[in-house]
Amino acid sequence: MYAQLVQTDGLKKPEEMSPEERAFQERIDRGEKIEPKEWMPEGYRKTLIRQIGQHAHSEIVGQLPEGNWITRAPTLERKAILLAKVQDEAGHGLYLYCAAETLGVSRDELMELLHRGKMKYSSIFNYPTLTWADMGAVGWLVDGAAIMNQVPLQRTSFGPYSRAMIRICKEESFHQRQGYAVMMKMCAGTPQQKAMAQDALNRLWYPSLMMFGPSDKDSVHSAQSMAWKIKMNTNDELRQKFVDQTVPQAEYLGLTIPDPELKWNEEKGGYDFSEPDWSEFFDVIAGNGPCNKDRLGARVKAWDDGAWFREGLVAHAEKAAARKAPLAAE
Amino acid sequence: MSKEWPLWEVFIRGQHGLNHRHVGSLHAPDAEMAINNARDVYTRRNEGVSIWVVPSAAITASSPSDKGPLFEPANSKVYRHPTFYDIPEEVGHM
Ligand SMILES: [Fe+2]
Ligand SMILES: [Fe+2]
């Protein structure tokens, strides 16, 4: 998902656990929240830092494909909406960095790891947003997929992560709805506009399915995360739910899901559908997607170009504090 | 790496008449900027009528491992709760 490929160790069996680890697992099984200063296994802490960090980076990098259209939104109202949506994503990134920081890593350290390519963000943001219809498709599909993953994460075992997810989920519904509203408008427009909407769906459908991460049979590392309740559902479960929810929405728009294999399966009560091309997914994750260099380059440039400003504000704060200090001493 | 902005804990009064409540943290070079940033990060939808920011380093927290002994004195004092007392119904609401 926003954290698609988080490396973890294999699942520990009860007899391999130390007494502390067993007590910790029992707390999680009872549904207790783990808070930052409490004892936790090193693996739990490390996995969470990777996962929350990856999630935060996705929110931040995820501003870029939509930021691309702010200056070219078709109306002032659409521009204000898109701006508010992108600003929310910045907020989501900050809630999540703040949750990660309670685990003993600093935000600047996480940023640095992102900039050096040592931490990932979601593969979806390495695809370009070519037309205004993509603003509709991103809100509808990408935020829709994000919601699917984030709603269960509100119940995750780590307190600060869970609270960040609750805050985020409150804001996401607006994101998806404004996207779907763009799609409705395009689909009710001229044949050319409707064709743009179909084209956006064609390009973003499989990358959206990839957001849930590799198929369960290939993601061997999720058992430990599930036991720790930092992953609440398997990748395939969530992907199925997403498809089942999205197909009727596409039908309402009069759009066709670009999958000839797609069909309702009465027996399982869900749609059968084609898997995305996983070799493309791993290629994008490895850095070879259409926009990887642009996205990371834009982040590094923003960070470097802002350095003088960040340092200037620190110098100002130090001077102001020094000016106050002698007065306080009198 | 240049100096990181200090961390601030943010407390927000959601409505008049309620306590300020901890909502999260953020980085800012000084208190004034921390308030400005807190407005943008934590109150984009009218979530507050007042903001406090406190340097995270200024907070002293009780230690989780002391939880037992720290709160033990309250555990045994059931008579502090109204339900401890049986009052006959004839007496009316009390
Ligand atoms: Fe978000
Ligand atoms: Fe969103």
Automatic annotation (TrEMBL), chain A:
An example Gene Ontology molecular-function term: phenylacetyl-CoA 1,2-epoxidase activity
The protein's Enzyme Commission number: 1.14.13.149
Biased composition (Basic and acidic residues): 10-22
One GO location term (cellular component): cytosol
Region (Disordered), start-end ranges: 1-22
Keyword Oxidoreductase: yes
Biological-process GO terms, alphabetical: phenylacetate catabolic process
Database matches in InterPro entries: Aromatic_CoA_ox/epox, Ferritin-like, Ferritin-like_SF, PaaA, PaaA_PaaC
Domain of life, per lineage: Bacteria
Entry keywords, A to Z: Oxidoreductase
Keyword rRNA-binding tagged: no
Protein name: 1,2-phenylacetyl-CoA epoxidase subunit A
Automatic annotation (TrEMBL), chain B:
Annotated InterPro entries: PaaB, PaaB_sf
Broad enzyme group: oxidoreductase
GO MF annotation, one: phenylacetyl-CoA 1,2-epoxidase activity
Protein name, entry field: 1,2-phenylacetyl-CoA epoxidase subunit B
Pfam families: PaaB
The species this protein was found in: Amaricoccus solimangrovi
Top-rank taxon: Bacteria
EC number of this enzyme: 1.14.13.149
UniProt keyword annotations, A-Z: Oxidoreductase
